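Annex B. Sample input.
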Amino acid sequence: MTDTTSNAGLQAMIARAGQITAEEAEALDVTWKADEGILLPEPSASLAIQGGADGRMVTNADLVAAWQHALEAAGAAGRVEEIEAAQEAGRAVRHSDAHLRDRAGAEEAVRSAVLATGVRDLVSDEEFAILTAAWRKVLGEV
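Annex B, continued. Sample output.
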């Protein structure tokens, strides 16, 4: 990480992710999934034959581009600790007391916010806002 302040900030975010309530996790999940703009394929016989493959597609191009840029920028800058912090935050949600059946949206929202915060100097203001929107809406400022 760039300095101990960032490290402390990311560690605080990871700790917060591990303490989210079921209501917060649900709100993060719903907010993130709404932001993704998920499009599901029409059911078909061929899809059923293929085992009903998960054909969900994220249609929010800005979100996808911001995530991809943050990840690529972190990798190119050798910011492995920030990537690992994002992964750790996602695991913290999974192991929290939130007990949701499907925490995928909550995990993605937390990973996204932690990564964006860790590489704040590498992403634009717009990308940062996009990647931290769910966290800020549900949990407050990053």
